[in-house]
Design brief:
Blueprint: E1 3-9, H1 18-25, E2 28-34, H2 39-44, E3 50-53, H3 61-65, E4 72-75, H4 85-90, E5 94-96, H5 103-118, H6 121-129, E6 147-151, H7 155-166, E7 170-174, H8 180-183, E8 188-189, H9 192-198, E9 201-204, H10 218-223, E10 229-232, H11 241-248, E11 254-257, H12 265-270
Parallel strand pairs: 1-2, 1-3, 3-4, 4-5, 6-7, 6-9, 7-8, 9-10, 10-11
Helix pairs in contact: 5-7
Length: about 270
């Protein structure tokens, strides 16, 4: 398929190796790189038949209707919750993503932040840089034998579960669909409510959909046991941020997100 005009939204030309743009140029007559909030972006939608977006760019009913010639939308990342896929399907527009994008990177991030937290690495490094090598006051916590919950066992969640098993954790999961292949490897299924309330470490890997918005709701947030660590690699819409703020004020759980840059400044300061 040859496209007449592709809008590349929130992906500057220097973000990818030129070889990829060269391949794309064979498939389109014209490509334009534009920021998502530019008035020009809305104007250029009028005759665009292809949209390629970066992470967390809204392409909803409004944008789709502004592009009557639109045939193809692709998210150059894994998460596609900002795309109105149902409406795109009704309009005959194909939607794709990159399922394997950053699987290893995100999974490794999860364990980087876990180890930093349970080993108090930031404080230890600061103290060592000051020439203080006294170990008093540091409490070592092991991942081994901890109840490790994976919420959402897709590609990334599955990889996190595998690594957690390697650490010797008691790995359990909840996902919309059972994953028999990983269950055979000792990853146990548990219903979401009891899993969240009983786990020491909870790692979220859900796709953003209307059904998963506020999945981590007030009831579930309040059920998290004191001392637990929550890692969220998912869009903020999946969490009730008001309920989370109230729980964090108690100071007895830790919440780490890699989507904090997407929060409004007001929300970021609250958390």
């Amino acid at each position: 398929m040859k496209f007449k005009k592709a809008l590349i939204i929130n992906i500057s030309a220097d973000k990818l190796d030129p070889i990829y743009w060269e391949q794309l140029d064979k498939m389109v007559d014209k490509r334009m790189h534009l920021p998502k909030d530019s008035p020009q972006t809305q104007k250029e939608l009028a005759d665009a038949d292809c949209i390629l977006t970066g992470f967390q760019v809204d392409v909803g009913r409004k944008e789709i209707d502004m592009a009557p010639n639109l045939k193809y939308i692709s998210v150059l990342a894994t998460a596609y919750g900002k795309i109105d896929t149902a409406y795109a399907k009704r309009k005959g527009t194909t939607v794709t993503n990159v399922p394997g994008y950053a699987t290893e990177s995100v999974a490794e991030f999860v364990f980087a932040v876990i180890l930093e937290k349970v080993r108090d690495l930031a404080r230890a490094k600061k103290q060592a840089n000051e020439g203080n090598y006294i170990e008093v006051g540091f409490k070592a916590t092991e991942i081994k034998d901890k109840i490790f919950a994976v919420i959402g066992l897709g590609r990334i969640g599955g990889r996190v579960a595998e690594i957690a098993k390697g650490f010797g954790a008691d790995v359990r999961y909840w996902s919309e669909h059972r994953k028999k292949d990983l269950e055979k490897k000792g990853v146990r299924y548990q219903n979401a409510d009891s899993l969240i309330s009983s786990s020491d470490i909870i790692s979220f890997h859900l796709a953003e959909t209307p059904q998963t918005q506020h999945f981590l709701n007030r009831k579930r947030i309040n059920s998290v046991k004191p001392g637990s660590l929550i890692i969220s690699t998912v869009p903020n819409e999946i969490t009730d941020l008001t309920a989370l703020e109230e729980r964090l004020k108690k100071g007895n759980i830790t919440y780490i997100s890699d989507h904090s840059d997407e929060l409004d400044l007001k929300d970021a300061k609250r958390l």
